[in-house]
C-alpha cells in the first residue's frame, strides 16, 4: 500500500506505476478505492504486508495520513518511508513512528536510482520474512504456522525478581514477544530487572541497539531481527508489570485448606 498526502500525488503515482510494472501488487487509492473510504483504507492496511509512506510536511499535518500511519504501526506492518518533500525530516508523531528506519529521499536522487533503492529495500523485506505482497498464487502465499509451545502461567503468581528462565519465556510468549524471547532465553527475573535498570540509566536506544547486535550473534538459518516495535512493546509490558502487577496473585485456597487453617487456629 502507498500512503500519501494528495499534495504529493505525482510522486506517489510514479511509485505505483513503477512497482506495478515490476509485478508488485500495490494498493493505491486512485485505483482501488471503492465504497466507504475509511473502511477501504483500513482494509488496505490490514491486507498489506508493507506500507510505503510518502513523508512530507503536508503528510505530517494531515489527520487522515496520521490515522493511516498509526494504524499500520499498531498492526506491526512493515513501513518503508520515502522523502517526498525536499529537505523534509520526520518530526513529532511521524518521527516517532519512523524512528531509525532507513528512508529513501526521492527529492535527492534521480528517479531511476530512487526506484532501484526502493526495490532493493523491498527485496530485503522479503529476505527477512516481512514480505511485501507480489503477484503470486494465493496457495503459495500462505504462511507456515509456527509450532505451538506449551507454556506455564506460574509467573503470574510471582514477583518479577522471582521468575525463572521458563517464567521469562512464558511471559514473553504470552505477550507475543517472540524475538525478545529468543534473546532472553537464559534470563531469569533478576536479569530482566537488571536489563530494565540499564534502560533507565543508559537510555532505551543503547539497549535496543545492544539487543539488535545480539540478534546477529544468535541467529541460525538466517539472522533474526528485533524490530523497534517489538522492543517498545517489551518495554511497555514490563513497565506495566512492574508498576501495576508486580504483586503476587493470591492462589485459590481450597475448602480442605480452609478447614486445615481453621483447625490450626483453634489449636
Taking all residues together, what is the mean pLDDT? 78
The end-to-end span amounts to 73 Å
Number of domain units: 2
Query: What is the number of strand segments?
Result: 4
Tell me about the largest β-sheet: 4 strands, parallel
Q: What percent of residues adopt helix (DSSP H or I)?
A: 55-70%
Q: Which structural class should the secondary elements be placed in?
A: mainly alpha
Structural Rg:
23 Å
Which CATH architecture of the largest domain would you pick? 3-Layer(aba) Sandwich
CATH homologous superfamily identity of the largest domain: Toll/interleukin-1 receptor homology (TIR) domain
Task: Determine the strand fraction and express it as a percent band.
Answer: 5-15%
CATH fold title of the largest domain:
Rossmann fold
| Unreliable segments of 5+ consecutive residues | 129-150, 247-267
Characterize the structure shown.
- The chain has 14 helices and four strands.
- It has 267 residues and is mainly α.
- The protein folds into two domains: 140 residues, Rossmann fold; 92 residues, no CATH class.
- This is TIR domain-containing protein.
- InterPro entries: TIR_dom (IPR000157), Toll_tir_struct_dom_sf (IPR035897).
- Pfam families: TIR_2 (PF13676).
Report a brief summary of the structure.
With 267 residues, the protein is mostly helical.
Q: What are the salient characteristics of this protein?
A:
14 helices; 4 strands; 267 residues; mainly alpha; Rossmann fold; disordered C terminus; 2 domains; elongated
Amino acid at each position: 500500500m502507498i500512503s500519501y498526502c494528495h499534495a504529493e500525488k505525482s510522486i506517489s503515482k510514479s511509485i505505483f506505476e513503477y512497482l506495478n510494472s515490476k509485478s508488485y501488487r500495490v494498493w493505491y487509492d486512485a485505483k482501488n478505492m471503492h465504497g466507504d473510504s475509511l473502511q477501504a483504507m483500513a482494509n488496505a492496511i490490514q491486507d498489506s504486508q508493507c506500507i510505503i509512506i510518502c513523508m512530507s510536511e503536508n503528510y505530517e499535518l494531515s489527520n487522515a495520513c496520521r490515522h493511516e500511519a498509526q494504524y499500520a504501526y499498531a498492526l506491526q506492518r512493515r513501513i518503508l518511508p520515502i522523502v517526498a518533500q525536499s529537505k523534509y525530516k520526520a518530526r513529532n508523531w511521524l518521527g516517532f513512528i519512523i524512528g531509525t528506519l532507513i528512508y529513501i529521499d526521492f527529492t535527492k536522487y534521480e528517479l531511476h536510482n530512487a526506484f532501484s533503492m526502493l526495490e532493493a529495500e523491498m527485496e530485503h523485506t522479503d529476505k527477512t520474512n516481512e514480505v511485501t505482497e507480489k503477484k503470486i498464487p494465493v496457495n503459495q502465499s500462505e504462511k507456515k504456522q509456527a509450532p505451538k509451545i506449551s507454556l506455564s502461567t506460574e509467573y503470574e503468581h510471582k514477583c518479577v525478581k522471582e521468575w525463572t528462565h521458563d517464567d521469562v519465556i512464558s511471559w514473553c510468549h504470552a505477550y507475543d514477544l517472540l524475538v525478545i524471547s529468543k534473546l532472553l532465553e537464559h534470563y531469569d527475573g533478576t536479569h530482566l530487572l537488571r536489563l530494565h535498570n540499564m534502560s533507565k540509566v543508559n537510555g532505551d536506544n543503547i539497549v535496543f541497539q545492544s539487543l539488535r547486535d545480539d540478534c546477529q550473534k544468535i541467529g541460525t538459518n538466517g539472522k533474526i531481527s528485533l524490530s523497534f516495535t517489538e522492543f517498545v512493546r517489551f518495554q511497555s509490558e514490563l513497565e506495566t508489570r512492574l508498576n501495576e502487577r508486580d504483586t503476587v496473585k493470591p492462589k485459590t485456597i481450597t475448602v480442605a485448606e480452609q478447614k486445615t487453617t481453621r483447625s490450626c487456629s483453634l489449636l
